[in-house]
Amino acid sequence: MLEFIYSQFEETVFDVGIGVAVWLVALALPFRGLRGKKEIGWDVVGYFGSAVFGLMIVIGLEEPILDWAIPRMDVWRASYAQLPSWAVLLLYVVAADLGSYWAHRLLHTRFLWDAHAWHHSPRYLYFLSGTRAAPIHIVVLIAPTSLAYLFFPYETAFLVAFAHAAFQVANQHYIHSNLWVPFPKHLEYVFVTPRFHFVHHARDRKYSDSNYGFIFSIWDRLFGTYTEPDSVPADAPLGLGYEIGNWRAFFGLPPAR
Description:
about 60% helix
C-alpha cells in the first residue's frame, strides 16, 4: 500500500511539474489575453477529483477488461509481429487520437454534454483548469485509448513507457495553455496548437462544437469540424453560456431547474 501511495505521489509531482513548466513559459509567451476569473480552488478540486475518478476507472474497469482481452488477441498481434516497436507505438498513437476525436464529438451530443460541461466551465484556461473531468467524461475518453492499446500494445520498457507518459501529460497541458508557438498556421495543418484548442473552449457553441482533436488537427479537417482560429475574435470569452453549480458540473449532472 505504501509503495502504491508513493508511486501515485510521484506521478502527481511529475504531472504538476510539467504543468507548471508549461504555464510559466505561457506567462512569458502568451498568444492572447485572458479576461476570465481564475478559480484556483475549484481547479485544484477538479485536478484531484479527476485523478481519483481516473484511478478508480482504470483499476476497476480498464485493467480488468484489458487483462481479459489482450491474451485473446494473439492472432491479431502476430499479423504485425515483424514491425519495429516504434512503428507499433506510432500506430497506437494515431489510432488512439482518432478514437479520442470521435469520443470527444460524442461528448458534445445532447446525451453526454452534461458529463463534459465541467471540462468547459473554466473562464480562465491554463494547465490546472484543463484537467477538469467528470466521471463519465473520463470513461468515454479512456475507452478509445484502451481499445487502441488492445490492438497495438506498445513496448512497455521503462524508457518507452516513460516517454509516452511524458508526452501525454505534456500535450494535455500544452493544448490548454495560453502559449504562443511560432508558425501556428503551418503547424495546424497537422497538429493541434493552443490557439486551435482555445477555439474549442469558447463560450459560443458555434466555436466550441469544433476543433475536437487532441494531437492531430487532421481529423477535424477530414471530418468537417475545423474552425480556423483566425476567424474567431481574439478576445472571445471562454466557459459555458449558462450557469451551473460547480458541484453539479463536477459530477456531470445537468443544471438545477
